[in-house]
Amino acid sequence: MFVPSQNISSPPKKILMWNGLSSWGNVRAGMGEFIKQECPVSNCVLVNRRKEAESVDLVIFKDLFSKPNFKRRQEQLWMIYMLECPHHTQVFPQKNLFNWTATYRSVSILS
Q1: Contact by Cβ (8 Å): 49, 18
Q2: Residue 89 sits in which domain range?
């Protein structure tokens, strides 16, 4: 597994769970989930307040995507996480909308 170097003195990376934390099970805001899962990269914090969208480092959309109405910074990453197969997945409005994808298949990509 690739583990990037961490600069502990830098502020934590903020990850916005766009569809809320409740859809992820017993996950809470903050750093706790990274510590609980023994993540090798622990300088991250989960948030679920959409009003923070413009300031976060990563926005994760789960299962369904509707284009947000906030101004996306150039360095902000977007990730789509889907458990449905492509046959049952919505068509996205533009290519290269997402920087990362996560699906049930390790070899999956969105085209």
Answers
A1: no
A2: 13-103
Query: What are the tens digits of pLDDT across the range 42-51?
Result: 789 999 999 9
1: DSSP letter: -
CA distances from residue 85 to 9, 60, 73, 89 in whole angstroms, order as listed: 41, 18, 30, 6
Is position 111 within any domain? no
Q: Is residue 6 part of a domain?
A: no
* pTM for this prediction: 0.81
DSSP 8-class letter at 101: E
Q: How many domains does the chain have?
A: 1
- Tokens 């992820």 -> residue: 24
